Amino acid sequence: MRGHGFLIANYVRGDSVIHRTPLWLKFLVVVACGTASFLIVDWAVSLAIFAVMCGLFLLSGAGVRRLLRAIWMVAPILLVIGLFQWWQLGGPTAARIVVNILVCVVAASVLTATTPVQDLLDGVVSLAKPFRRLGADPERFALTIAVMLRSIPFIAGAFSDVRDSARARGLERNPRALVLPVFITTVAYARQTGDALAARGLGEAEEIPEKS
């Protein structure tokens, strides 16, 4: 399977001020951007925040190319959302919604581009520990995120490969030629992942002994 881009940037080694920023603060920035997307009502304010997040991304040294790739990956979806919102609610509202989504994408990319995956997962475990008293398993939660980060690029790559193969055979407009192979590949990948987790004792929840 070829390598393919993902919605957020991969980790880039560096020693920038963004790399050295505490993980909790970067988490807080991402959460703040997500919250702001529901509160901001002026597209100009959203655009200003977007410019700031792009500046932070470039300050990290991740590069313009990675930034553009992160934006390009969501461009088709944003185009559909923008056109629909423009039709329903008008241009300013459509612009605000689209830019707010971009703010969240770039904020997440700043986090992932400046934080090693293992540090990111360790941070998730630490943040989830207070929920242990409610029955949550922080380690299992982090494992779920790790599997997701690995699976989504694989599925995106599978779709891209199948699409290229279908185009070479003149079947790019045949939904069956696109969906069925991707579905089969995804199911096979899920089974392999499940078997690997089960082999390590991670695939199933621990059984609780019955009280006599």
List keywords for this structure.
212 residues, mainly alpha, 2 domains, 8 helices, 0% strand, globular, disordered C terminus, cell membrane, transmembrane helix, ABC/ECF_trnsptr_transmembrane, membrane, ECF_transporter_component
Structure overview:
There is one protein chain. The chain is mainly alpha-helical and about 210 residues long. The protein has two domains: about 1-115, no CATH class; about 115-205, no CATH class. It is built from eight helices and no strands. Helix 3 runs parallel beside helix 5 and helix 4 runs antiparallel to helix 5. The longest helix is centred in the C-terminal third of the chain and has 31 residues, at about 140-170. The protein is globular and about 45 Å long. The model is unreliable at about 205-210 (pLDDT under 50). It is found in: Membrane. Keywords: Cell membrane, Membrane, Transmembrane, Transmembrane helix. This is Energy-coupling factor transporter transmembrane protein EcfT. InterPro entries: ABC/ECF_trnsptr_transmembrane (IPR003339), ECF_transporter_component (IPR051611). It holds the Pfam family CbiQ.
